[in-house]
Design goal:
- The structure is a single chain.
- The protein is of the alpha+beta class.
- Helices cover 26% and strands 28% of the residues.
- The strands form five sheets. An eight-stranded mixed beta sheet has the order 1-2-3-17-7-20-5-4, covered by helices on one side. A four-stranded antiparallel beta sheet has the order 6-18-9-16.
Length: 334
């Protein structure tokens, strides 16, 4: 029988600046604990938007994968990745290959896709010596803190993601689409409402318009749900931005974001978005054996720069369709 662990259990710690923390007593069998307490843990996520389970301490990678499987429901295969990952099992991956000294700013996983995970799970195998937290921000709170005129424009127009795939930087075609066959890629793009154009050198450029604000599929709350700031050129470190523009040109960046009508988003606006996220961020340093569950629609996540080895497994689960989240704009279909 699933545990009936009450939401008010003393094991759940609620402190300002931190995600909810649940102290687990797994008595050495992390996978069994996860199976027994699955419903209670997921109920905490439904209430708070996230929960960090501490004390499970799975012994190795195989047991960690077992824990993630028992806590998740309906694993998702990642498509349209922006950075390579290593697959460990169905729906369970390594963290994105992103330079340790560069932050990964706040975002919602696959918020540019027509189907995205409703639940993200993170499991820390090796905590870094310095930094590397997976920080969180509540999307309804972030939405309420943004300027009303800016929100109104994004509600009206949505946001546009442009991507340029090449063999040198970022995710390859095979990483993103599961194949490098042109026919397979074109079929995927048409089904996923992604406009595409093949380049003379064999590269691919795509664009897709999505809603910047959606309603949570269960609670109905409006959430700031996108990757406008994270995938924008002005979030890049200046030296990286300069290098990429010099090599690929302003229109050939691996990824960039715009207003839904195609107009560029100015640097000040991108910095404002990141500052609002930062002012509503909560985090807790990773410890070996930690497992964190995150409602991907309600809660944005990021990754700090870090030093030393860091290994965090990522699971994507509980698929949600954009069409079920009251999108405010039509997607691009050609």
């Amino acid at each position: 029988m699933p545990s009936s662990l009450p939401l008010s259990t003393p094991g759940v710690e609620l402190e300002p600046g931190k995600p909810p923390i649940l102290r687990a007593d797994s008595t050495g069998d992390a996978a069994s604990w996860a199976a027994e307490h699955r419903d209670a843990v997921r109920a905490l996520v439904a209430e708070h938007g996230s929960v960090l389970v501490r004390g499970l301490g799975p012994a190795d990678r195989d047991e960690t994968v077992s824990v993630l499987r028992r806590l998740s429901s309906g694993p998702m295969t990642e498509r349209e990745a922006f950075a390579p990952r290593r697959a460990h099992s169905d729906g369970i991956y390594s963290s994105s290959k992103w330079p340790p000294h560069q932050p990964m700013c706040m975002h919602h996983e696959l918020s540019y896709a027509l189907e995205f995970p409703g639940l993200m799970l993170f499991a820390c195998l090796t905590a870094p010596a310095v930094g590397g937290r997976t920080a969180l921000a509540d999307a309804p709170t972030v939405l309420g803190a943004l300027p009303t005129d800016l929100v109104a424009r994004f509600l009206r127009e949505g946001w546009l993601l442009t991507r340029s795939y090449n063999d040198e930087i970022g995710a390859s075609l095979a990483d993103a689409f599961g194949s490098d066959d042109r026919g397979v890629i074109e079929s995927y793009c048409r089904a996923a409402a992604i406009a595409f154009e093949w380049q003379p050198d064999g590269g691919l450029r795509t664009r897709q318009r999505r809603s910047a604000v959606v309603r949570h599929p269960v609670s109905g709350r409006r959430c700031w749900f996108n990757q406008i700031a994270f995938l924008n050129e002005w979030t890049l470190a200046p030296e990286i931005h300069e290098y990429l523009v010099d090599v690929y040109g302003a229109d050939g960046l691996p990824f960039n974001t715009r207003y839904g009508d195609g107009a560029p988003i100015d640097e000040d606006t991108v910095h404002l978005l990141n500052e609002v996220y930062q002012s509503h961020t909560v985090s807790e340093p990773w410890q070996d054996g930690d497992v964190m569950l995150v409602d991907n629609v309600r809660t944005a996540h990021s990754r700090e720069p870090y030093e030393g080895p860091r290994e965090v497994l990522v699971a994507m689960s509980d698929a949600v369709r954009l069409a079920d989240c009251s999108p405010t704009v039509e997607v691009i279909t050609a």
